[in-house]
Amino acid sequence: MPTAIKSDKIDLSSEKETEELASTFIKKIKPGCFIFLYGEIGVGKTTFIRYLINQFQKLNKLEITEVTSPTFNLLNEYQINDFKINHYDLFRLKSTDEMKNLDLFEDNKNIITLVEWPQIIKEKPKNLIELVFEYGKDHKTRSVQIRGL
Q1: Backbone CA torsion sign across 8, 12, 17, 21
Q2: Are strands 142-147 and 75-80 parallel, antiparallel or unpaired?
Q3: For residue 46, which of 76, 7, 83, 2 has the smallest C-alpha distance?
Q4: Can you name the CATH fold of 10-147?
Q5: What local confidence, expressed as pLDDT, does residue 1 receive?
Q6: Are strands 128-135 and 111-116 parallel, antiparallel or unpaired?
Q7: Which residue of 38, 101, 130, 136 is 20 to 30 Å from 121, comparing CA positions?
Q8: Maximum CA pair distance of the chain?
Q9: What is the per-residue pLDDT for 60?
Q10: Rounded Cα gap, residues 23 and 81, in angstroms
Q11: What is the 8-class DSSP label of residue 124?
Q12: Contact residues for 88 (Cβ-Cβ < 8 A; gap 6+)
């Protein structure tokens, strides 16, 4: 995986590039990490998460499951042997009060926490990696900038 520094952007214009980034990215994260994913609707956040979770499942010889955005139920959980991946989508939330019952910052030593639309979160957690997805000049090109790795 190319190492992104400050203004470096990694091209994700194809799903293959997104899959390759996810395959490399899993080597850099472990339970206890928080990953915040920013970007417009349709820019590739959930696609990246799908490849990431499916790669963890493959490496751990688990059944590959469907990974969808938890836009309406707010949280999807995936058990990966001795740890869990919590995938949140906060798009529909309007205030931090609505986050109280989500246990987003529960004891997470055995959890990798993925959060789409984290803008509502006021205090950033420790062990945070931020992925900022964006479109190029047209909607065919896409890139991601990684902060905190």
Answers
A1: positive
A2: unpaired
A3: 76
A4: Rossmann fold (3.40.50)
A5: 44
A6: unpaired
A7: 136
A8: 43
A9: 96
A10: 18
A11: P
A12: 70, 74, 75, 102, 104, 113, 114, 115, 116
Which pair of tokens denotes residue 1? 């995986």
Q: Determine the number of helices (DSSP H) and then strands (DSSP E) in the chain.
A: 2, 7
pTM for this entry: 0.92
What are the beta bridge partners of residue 77? 86
Amino acid at 40: E
Q: What residue spans define the domains of the chain? A: 10-147
Question: Residues 128, 149: contact at Cβ < 8 Å?
Answer: no
E-only strand ranges, 1-116: 10-11, 34-38, 75-80, 83-89, 111-116
Q: How far apart are CA 42 and CA 79, in angstroms?
A: 26
Residues in the chain, total: 149
- For residues 106 and 102, what is the distance between their CA atoms, to the nearest angstrom? 9
Q: What angle do CA 87, 90, 93 make, to 5 degrees?
A: 150
Identity of residue 67 = V
